[in-house]
Write a structure and sequence with these properties.
α1 (5-13) packs antiparallel against α3 (51-62) and α2 packs parallel to α3. This protein is 36% helix and 20% strand. The chain is an alpha/beta fold and 212 residues long. It binds S-adenosyl-L-homocysteine (SAH) and magnesium ion.
Length: 212
């Protein structure tokens, strides 16, 4: 079942980094996971302005479940002033710090997904340390430095239910194509642990199934 066309337009209109074909693949993988494990929620780590969140929220709605969207909303390293992916319109003039939460709320509101998508605002590592709910679908697209990626692997992947799905963004096995941590700190350990099996890949989006 493809994403509703109006919601897809909303996703594409949102600020963010998810290409259309990868968003569609994310949606399809989440719908499949939600159908296989009815009643279990989805988790997204790294929402930014809610672009990928719309594809995932649409999938959650189609499956009759919900999506927890975890982000401190202060931006990753590469979103800060002076870096490649900095957007000055996302700086809060009061604090001078990045704040993507207002834009995220607008995106989710305008997509009509406020009864499906719940923002969890905080550091991923600390939220994960207090998390206890198994999920049908986990999407990791948070901090892409070595430590945050390793923390997301350690903190979140144990909460994927058996038979559930782990999707990882920005996975580049070839170092000339992009940064290494999502591949080295998340994808490789997931597969090497024997707990996850690769299922498919679309661009830099890799989908794995929990098998152990
Ligand atoms: N999935 C989004 C893009 C996410 S960008 C899309 O495709 O549209 C990465 C996000 O991870 C940023 O919003 C940043 O604030 C968040 N992030 C980075 N490190 C984090 C951490 N340690 N805890 C919580 N959020 C973090
Ligand atoms: Mg990404």
């Amino acid at each position: 079942m493809p994403i509703d066309a109006a919601l897809r337009s909303r996703a594409l209109a949102a600020t963010g980094f998810m290409p259309a074909d990868e968003g569609d693949a994310l949606h399809a993988a989440a719908v499949e996971a939600g159908a296989a494990l009815p009643g279990l929620p989805f988790v997204e780590v790294g929402s930014y302005c809610g672009r990928s969140t719309v594809w995932l929220g649409a999938a959650a709605r189609a499956c009759g479940t919900v999506l927890f969207a975890v982000d401190h909303h202060r931006g990753s390293e590469e979103n800060q002033a002076g870096w490649e992916h900095h957007d000055p319109t996302l700086v809060d003039p009061r604090t001078g710090a990045m704040d993507t939460l207002p834009r995220f709320r607008d995106t989710i509101h305008d997509a009509g997904l406020e009864d499906v998508v719940f923002a969890v605002v905080g550091q991923s590592r600390l939220v994960a340390a207090h998390w206890a709910t198994p999920s049908a679908f986990l999407f990791i697209d948070g901090g892409h430095g070595e430590q945050p990626a390793a923390d997301d692997y350690a903190g979140w992947t144990p909460h994927v239910a058996m038979g559930g799905t782990l999707a990882i963004h920005d996975v580049f096995s070839d170092p000339t194509e992009g940064g290494r941590p999502p591949y080295e700190q998340i994808f490789r350990p997931a597969v090497d642990s024997g707990r996850f099996q690769p299922v498919s890949a679309t661009g830099s989006l890799h989908v794995l199934r929990r098998v152990g």
